[in-house]
Amino acid sequence: GAELYKVHDRRGKEKPLDTMDKASLVLLSLVVPLVLLLLPLSRPASVVTHLPGFHGRLPFRLETGYVGVDEETGAELFYYFVESERSPDTDPVILWMTGGPFCSGMVFFEVGPMKFVLAPYNGSLPQLAYNPYSWSKTTSIILLDSPVGTGFSYARDVEGYHDIGDFSFSMHVLIFLNKWFTDHPHYQSNPFFVGGSSYAGKMSPIIAQHISQEIELGKQPKINLKGYVVGNPVTGSDYDDNFRVPYAHGVGIISDQLYEAAIRNCKGSYIRPTDKMCARVLNTFQNGTIGEFVRCKKSIPYTSEVPSSIKYHFNLTSRGYRSLVFSGDHDLVIPFLSTHAWIRSFNFSVVDDWRAWHLDGQAAGFTITYANYMTFVTIKGGGHVSIEHRPKECLAMVQRWLDNEPL
């Protein structure tokens, strides 16, 4: 029962687990027995060959470990490294971060090689299955719990949980990567890409630019940066929110009457209403479209210090770094209209015009490529976490792109 487990709050005070919500209890019951096996028993990295709930030896190479990123606070980031199942000596290495912030990457979500077998929870350990659409089919993956406080990443000093934001997030990841590649020199020559979804999609180009600046200063012989990959990315700019109303109308979520009232009263700006009528319309929109969905608890304060990541996208692609930006076309959080709008704002010429891309003889979405080495892709039927919703399509997309093949 829940009374057998105990957790601690941020001040170290013990509290029974049954004071938490039911969803958290179920999640911990499922995940804790599994991840305990993943934790390294000592500071050096550990190779994990077996997991409870999965029969036999893991069909891929899994390494876990901690890397210190702040000596003063004792902050350490926890990672999972899944080696490419194709050609690890030459295949790319991608850092993949999950949205949030404060959402653990793990190996059971998005691009990772394992999946839970969905079944009614009966109190026993869940069964695990191999994910046939893991991105490890084509690339080695570093799954990182970042920022500090995410998943198993922690700080020994409570001060390490203060002032967490975009700046510390990006610098800690940069320190992590420098140390990780120093400890894994075998991968230093492999093409490297920074990647992430949702809020991590905001941080990915920021981190990539830090790496590129170190390369230009001659400080970065260890990381062979080639570009970045972001899915349903947050930018922090007005683009993110301003296309929600047109998108909601386009997919039939709100009525013609409400949309026409929004156009008439808000005059194309759906973020900061300038009069009462616009505010009333947007309030009605918010109450038709918002439901409760909780995957990550945000008990640690986080500061979004970078107002917009769009300039980082522009800077990187202008310098010749490749970028893959993909969006599920059923995402109301960051509609694909929003993402394509800021991409078009760069005014780069088109080298491969808007067209369908296919998988198994069916349209899997649409794509367009610009002269600044940026490819934009929609995932047909994908939501905000399109890799989870359309794993086969997303694997085909990233494999073709990484292999420099047309979608």
From TrEMBL:
Segments traversing the membrane: 23-41
Pfam families (UniProt xref): Peptidase_S10 (PF00450)
Similarity comment: Belongs to the peptidase S10 family.
Swiss-Prot/TrEMBL keywords: Carboxypeptidase, Disulfide bond, Glycoprotein, Hydrolase, Membrane, Protease, Transmembrane, Transmembrane helix, Zymogen
Subunit annotation: Carboxypeptidase II is a dimer, where each monomer is composed of two chains linked by a disulfide bond.
Protein name per the record: carboxypeptidase D
Enzyme Commission (EC) number: 3.4.16.6
Single biological process term from Gene Ontology: secondary metabolic process
Source species of the chain: Aegilops tauschii subsp. strangulata (Goatgrass)
Enzyme class label: hydrolase
Superkingdom of origin: Eukaryota
Gene Ontology MF terms in the entry: acyltransferase activity, transferring groups other than amino-acyl groups; serine-type carboxypeptidase activity
Catalytic activity as recorded in UniProt: Preferential release of a C-terminal arginine or lysine residue
